[in-house]
Amino acid sequence: MPIAKNWDAKAINGMAGNELVVSGEANTGLLTVMPDLKKHVPQGINPAVLLLDLIGASDILPEHFQPVQYNEKIGRLDQYSEVSIFYQDKQIACIKVIMAPVNVEG
Questions:
Q1: pTM summary value
Q2: What is the mean pLDDT of the chain?
Q3: Which helix (H) or strand (E) holds 92?
Q4: Which domain of life is it from (predicted)?
Q5: Strand order in the sheet with 90-96
């Protein structure tokens, strides 16, 4: 039984600047808490790989998946090449960061 699924990581150039958006779904079972993603401490030795901890998830039945998202303002769109997700100090996902197309209006 997966603890989480449907991961996605995008680097976006928006009106407020560059932003990394990581999203997925986490199983909370019968828990009424909302899952969350926090920066792993310490971060790894490769600055191009963002490490995140999944909090508030559970691997108990019945499965009840809820959306979870992490947002971070970034200096450059290519700041991160991938994101690793950890649950209870074990890596559960490694996601490549996709650079979203830049919207040009004119």
A1: 0.89
A2: 90
A3: strand 90-96
A4: Bacteria
A5: 36-39, 49-55, 82-87, 90-96
